[in-house]
Each structure stands twice: as structure tokens, then as C-alpha cells.
TrEMBL record:
Residues 23-143 form the Alcohol dehydrogenase-like N-terminal domain. Keywords: Metal-binding, Oxidoreductase, Zinc. Its cofactor is Zn(2+). Residues 181-299 form the Alcohol dehydrogenase-like C-terminal domain. Belongs to the zinc-containing alcohol dehydrogenase family. It comes from the Bacteria. It comes from Streptomyces boluensis. This is Zinc-binding dehydrogenase. PANTHER family: SORBITOL DEHYDROGENASE.
Amino acid sequence: MRAVVVHGPGDVRVDERDRPVPGAGEVLLALEWGGICGSDIAYWKKGASGTASLKHPLVLGHEVAGRIAALGAGVTGLGEGQPATVHPAQLVGDGVLPERIAGRTNLYPHVRYFGSAAFDPHTDGGFSEYRVVLADQIRPLPDGVDTEQGALAEPLAVALHAVGRVPDLRGRTVLVNGAGPIGSLVVAAARHRGAATVVAADLTASSLAVARAMGADETRDLSRGDVLPQDVDVVFEASGAPAALGPVLRATARGGTVVQVGNLPGTAAPADLGDLVTREITWIGSYRFVEEIDDALRALRDGLDVRPLITHRFPLERAEEALAVAADPASGSSKVMLRLSGA
């Protein structure tokens, strides 16, 4: 079978690997679609994502969906040919968390994640024609949700987890700063959860066009001199740019809430944070998701349309070109999809 493998910085190849065989409690998934994420780009460009660095070749990809090709011994409740996506996280160890964060498995300290070099040996991702998956990581797709949409259940789950960090968005005004793929999905998730008005801000007109298609009522093009709205109830900071924090805090209403969705750098960076104190703003982090992938599949079933997010599609053999397009701000790309196999 073919797989998209990163061997080091700037070195991604489509390698031939043996087709895997599912063991007890496992499922063989024939992958059809994969979405390129920022971590895939980071491994390709730098050989690292966050604090995880490549020590060996790694199959990329954690936003994937396909059809069940075979069942291992003891697997019940699933059937061959069934369309499915994957919850890409697997806890390592006993899974016990302190009572104060009970159930918040996204905060468990040792997690194997598809397409991650955090452990050695690494955890291969799903940018391949086949992959063996633990049966309890399989999430069947609802009727009416195809595998291309199903591949985006994972990033939609990230967005739904972020909006879920605020107990109730109904009737509230929301600002999403940063309209990349996650930011645009936060726009859609906020509308899905009942926000009355959603404003999206970004430096790129093409990203703002996607945000509008995903449900933004207003957009602000910061590259053209637009300014952020003022006195916003809830702000989702999805750019991850430290320089954005000052304007974002100033846009937040006194006593309002900022949810930090965009990954901030792990090194020192200047940021203007004074308004955090003087405006008594609640600043909340949001990391991956728990079981919101199930919420994402229900939202897709109920009509939340993620297709406007998709701007480019490439076959698996053009994976390096796809990564380059996804990484290039001038390409106008939002979510770049890989066709992994299938008709």
C-alpha cells in the first residue's frame, strides 16, 4: 500500500508499505480522504511539531475517514464496508486523572495521537491507503455524511470543544480572530450552538471569504485597516499570534471571555496583556477535544456544512504539492484534502 511519510525536514515521500492485518480488537480501515493540518505541515517543513521531533520516518495525518475493510477477532457492532472516521487519541497508561479534571481526557499527560512524533516509536497517522485502528477509536459516519465530510469531523470536534468552553452562546455576540481552517470551523460551531452574531477577523481576504461561507455575519479585513469590534461578549482567538492578543483583549467587553484556540508559541514572545487585568477578562485555554467528535458527527448529520472549508483536493501521489499549497498563505487555501484511495 502507499503512505505519505515524512523522513525529515523538507523530505516527504509516498512510500510503499505492507498492507496491515487487524489483530484482536482491531479494525482495518481503507482510507479515502485526509485533511492536511498545521501539524502535518510543521513535521514536513521543520521535522517537528511543538515539542515533538522526528526520530524516525512518520506517516502523517490525523483528519481521516474511509470504509471498514476487515474486522479483527472479537470486534462486534461494526461491519465491512461501513463508512467511518477515527478518534485519533489513545491514552497510554491507566487513564486515571485527578478529580478536578475527571473526564477531561484531552488533558491526560500521555496520549498517542495519529501522526505524532511525541512518543518513540512514533504513532503513524492515516495518510495511507490502509491503517489498522483500535475498534474503540472507530466512529461510524451517520447516514448522509460522506467520507470527505467525515474526515473533517476531527477539526470540527476541536472547534466544538472550543465553543463548549463557554457554557452558553445562545443570543450572544462572538468574535473569531483568525479565519484559518480552525477559526472558520469555530465560526460554524458558534452558529450551531446558537450565537446571535458572529464576526470573523483575519489578514487574508480569501480566509474571510471562507469564514463568510461558514456562517460569519460580518468580517473584518485587518490588512485593509479594518479594526476589531468593541465590547464583544465572547472572543475566540484562533490565530495563535502573540501580537494579536492586545487588540483581542481590547475588543473584549469588560467581564467578557476570551477562549484561546490558536496554539501560542512555546517560547517567550512579546504580548500586550494589560487589559486582561483592568477589564477583568476571563481567558480560557482550549486543547483538542474529549468526545466532541461524536457531537461533530451529529452536527454534520443535522446539516452543518463543512464543504465551503475545502478549497483544494489532491491525489495521494501529489502529497508534497498538497502540503506546499496548504502552507502557502498566497495560495488562497483553507482546508486542503488528500484523496487517499477509493473511487
